[in-house]
Amino acid sequence: MQKLRYKTARGGRGAGTGVSLEGERGGLQRFFFSVLATMSLCFSVVAQEHETARLPLPQGQSTLEVHGKITNANADGVAHFDIATLKALPRARLETTTAVTDGVRRFDGFLMRDLLALVGAKGSTISATALNDYVIDFTADEFDRFDVLVAYEMDGQPLLASDKGPLWIVYPRDQHPELQDIRYDYRWVWQLRRLDIR
């Protein structure tokens, strides 16, 4: 390690004000620039960790928006999806009865947990909002415990906005007796348009 000598403004040796460095100034400058470069890199890495990653922008009309604590977005911290993008998620199928239709119906769509993974959801509570402004809260662990579907088709036909579409949250109620409780019926949000993660 090189030794740095310093002297006071009056020329005496030792600590004091008006310090002037002697010796290899170039080495000291390189040291300071190295420290500054390292600090700059650290700040850059920390900043990148807090930025949201970019999802592709939807090509068609936005069908679903996801807001709140997400790490992947495509417009000002919000994730917008058109129906084509949603259909590109792994397809899931569920056959079940519902509280508002007759008999067993077949639903096709995607699992809610797959969508939450795609946007990098970090919250513990999820609010779902319908086209008519109906809002209800879910706990995020529900979507880990149950294969909750966001359906865009019923019995092979697209769900329309005039009849519970284009998206309908569907629970596997026939597979889990506890889901036949009326409290879960309120979670079957049809005409889903927005999710808020917090």
Query: What is the CATH architecture term of the largest domain?
Result: Alpha-Beta Complex
In the CATH scheme, the class of the largest domain would be: Alpha Beta
* Lateral arrangement of strands in the main beta sheet: 6-4-14-9-10
What is the H/E order? EEHEEEEHEEHEEHEEEHE
- What oligomeric state do these chains adopt? single chain
CATH fold assignment of the largest domain: Sulfite Oxidase, Chain A, domain 2
Mean pLDDT: 82
Kindly describe this structure.
With 198 residues, the chain is α+β, with helices and mostly antiparallel strands. The protein folds into two domains: 5-50; 53-197, Oxidoreductase, molybdopterin-binding domain (Sulfite Oxidase, Chain A, domain 2). It is built from five helices and 14 strands. It has helices at 25-50, 83-87, 112-119, 142-145, 182-185; strands at residues 5-7, 20-22, 53-54, 64-68, 72-73, 79-81, 92-96, 105-111, 125-130, 135-139, 149-154, 157-158, 168-170, 192-197. It has a five-stranded mixed beta sheet with strand order 6-4-14-9-10. Strands 7, 8, 11, 12 and 13 form a five-stranded antiparallel beta sheet that branches. The radius of gyration is 29 Å and the shape is globular. The model is unreliable at 1-24 and 31-51 (pLDDT under 50).
